[in-house]
Structures are given as structure tokens and as C-alpha cells.
Amino acid sequence: MRKTFTLIATVATLLVFTNMSFGQTPAPNLGTTANFALFSITGALSNNGPSVITGDIGNTTGTITQFGGPPQATVNGNIRGLGSPESGSAATDVTNLYSSLGTASCGTIISPALGGQTLVSSSLAGSGVFCQPNGAATNLAANGTLTLSGDGIFIIQISNTLITGANSSIVLTNGALAKNVFFRVVDAVTLGAGSTFQGTIVSAGAITGGASASVTGRFLSTAGAISLDNNVITNVASPPIITNLTASPSPVCAGSPITFTATVGFAAPPYAYTITNGSNTVSGNASSASFTQVLTASGSGPQVFTLVVSNAGSATSATAPVMVNPQPTVVLTFPGGTTVVGPNTGTATITLPSSSLGQNFGSTGGVFYERVIIIDRINGYEIRQADSNNTGVFPINRGGPFTLTVTDGNSCRRTVSGVIQFQSQ
């Protein structure tokens, strides 16, 4: 009995100490803000120059101006304005995100001068929460570098304003990812001209992107305007999104074109795509959020086509079903038992006794048959005679070239070609 008690006590002790030794910082819950590159609850969104934003933008109060495409900003995503359900949800989630980042327990106090510092966060152990609590403005000097090292979550709490100088940069090393970096700022944020920023800014004040600054992350504000100046803002959280993938027509006849259309979001142009059913594959690059690609149907029966869109190391797929109906098999039977079978390719030569003239030949494989006889060719033009019926039976009224087009019950068609010649007596 005593041995059993000792074993249980030892296991319990191990469990307690195991739990205490791994203090890695959990990823914050972004909610619907994960879809946004720019969002302000109570501030306007404005832009100067041909900025490029990958991700949604929006607000719940204020204007959204100069985001209509070149020479204004290009938005590879959706614009969610006042009254949209997406902006309402994002407003709640930005508020919650700002609060949760602020309540994270500080693990390391950092200097307000960020340049030259290296912050380390591991997914295995240790806190990834860094704070600058003394109320002074936090800055990254011109041409300065802040290094973030490790594959953990980085939460950087700034107690005043955050200012980065011209051509400054945040460098990610040893597995650090922009999607795991969060700056929680209680006041305004200003990024210097030509600077490179990594991570999501969640601010209680205005956010300003200096001329030609680039951001891999998000600008989120609870109470300030967001202003851009020829910036590149790329949302890092979401892989590309494919919506409304359709194939038309379906059913489709083998040999006919199928047009695939879809809306592609969160993919900075150009993005790579592949569409395939396993045997019929087309790949390339596209720049428009309105995706269109045409393939030629092959095979027969139900098929599933998969569209894969890849961008910035992330990929997303969507599927569309297609029913492919085969072309009809056509059999032409002439007097004396001569037959022509499609899908054989080329032009068949049918040699008949002269007594066949005026007799009939029959064809099978469809519900509608159309014959065209080429009577003559003059100066590059063809003189043709056409007749059609539902029986597939046609008179042999002359020799020479002809085509027979057969349409089946699925409206699929096949055309066979031949030349009738008569044996000399």
C-alpha cells in the first residue's frame, strides 16, 4: 500500500513541475481581424499614391478615401465600411485584441531605443512578452535594426508612441515569423520613409505609414486614423482565399471548353495557380482577383477539378465538380457492307460500285444527323449542299467529299469526314 502511494505522489509532482517549466506565450486570438490589413474602429482611412494592400480594409466610423486602384491604392481584398457585418465584428475583435495584449504579463523590460536590440522568443519555453513601461516615446532610429529571434510569439508592449526612422528595419531570424509579432501601442505610431516593418500593430492612436514604407503585418487601431503614403501592406495571417469556384458548362461534352471562374483574395499579384483533375492540368500566374481559366474537357463521367492558389509561401485549394459526356460513337454503313467508324480520325475513302448511286447509306450514334456535300470549289470558295434528319439515313446522290455531324441525346457532337468514289465499269 505504501509503494502505491509513493508512485502516485511522484507522478503528481512531475506533472506540477512540467507545467511550471514551460511558460511559452500563447498566440493571441485575432478573431475576424485576421482578415484585415487595415482597420480602425473610429478613424478614417486615407492614402496617397499607388499603395498596394493585400487583405481587407475597413472601419466603423470615418471615410475611406483613395483606395480605388491605380493611381490610387490597390486593395487585394475587400473594403468593409460602416454598417457591414464584417466591420462590426472586427471592431469588437480589435477591442478584445488590444485588451488581451495589454494584460499579458511582461517577461522582459526593454529600452525605448529599439535600435541594436535582439529580442528572443521560443515556442518551447520562456516568455515572449516584452514591455517598455517608462512612458517615454519608443523609437527605432533611422537606419537602425531591431532583431527578433526565435519561433515563439512576440508581444511588445509600448507605453507611449512608437516611431521608426527612415530606412529602419525589423529583422526576423531563427524561425521568427511576422504573423507571430504584435506591437501593442497606447498612442500613435509613425513609420519612417522607406522603413521595413514586421508584425501587427494594435494601437489606441493614429497609425501613419511614411513614404514607401513596407509592412508585413497589419495596421489595427481602436481610436485613430490610418494614413498611407505609397506603402505596401501585406496581411500575414491568412493564406489565399478562394470563393465561388465554378465550372461552366457542366455537363460538358468531351472536346469542348470548360471555363473556370473564382474570386481569389489575400494573394498579392502575381500569384501562382494550378487547376487539375489529375490528368488535365494547367498552371500559370495571375494578377486579378477575378480568376478565369479555360480548359478543354477530356475523358468522360464525373470529374473533380482542384484549383490551388499559392502566394507568399501559403497555398489554398478549392474544388469544382464537372460532368463530362463523351462524344458519340458514329457508325456509317454503306451498300455492300462498307463501314466508317468515328472516332477514327482523318478522312475515310469509301469505294462503292456504280450501282450504289441512288441507294442509301445509314448512320447511327445520335438523335440528329447533318450531312454536308462539297459539290465544287471555285476560286477558293466551296459550293455545298446540306441536308439533315433524325434517322441517319441519306441517299447516295453523288461522289466526292462529305462530312456527317452526329448529335446525341446529351447534345454532344462528332463529325466524320469521307470521300465517296465509284468503281469504274
Summarize the structure.
With 425 residues, the protein is mainly beta. The protein has helices at residues 2-21, 85-103; strands spanning 36-40, 45-48, 52-54, 56-59, 74-76, 79-80, 108-109, 118-120, 129-132, 138-140, 145-149, 154-158, 162-164, 169-173, 181-185, 189-191, 196-203, 207-209, 214-221, 226-229, 232-234, 241-248, 252-253, 257-265, 271-276, 281-286, 290-296, 301-311, 314-325, 330-333, 339-342, 347-352, 360-364, 368-378, 381-389, 393-395, 400-407, 413-422. 9% of the residues lie in helices and 48% in strands.
List keywords for this structure.
425 residues; six-stranded parallel β-sheet; twelve-stranded parallel β-sheet; mainly beta
Morphology:
rod-shaped
Radius of gyration: 35 Å
Helix fraction by DSSP (H/I, runs of at least 4)? under 10%
Largest sheet: 12 strands, parallel
Structural class category = mainly beta
**Helix count, per DSSP?**
2
Give start-end ranges of low-pLDDT stretches.
Answer: 1-22
In whole angstroms, the N-to-C terminal distance is 116 Å
Residue-averaged pLDDT, rounded? 89
Sheet-strand content, in percent, reads: over 45%
Q: Give the total of beta strands.
A: 38
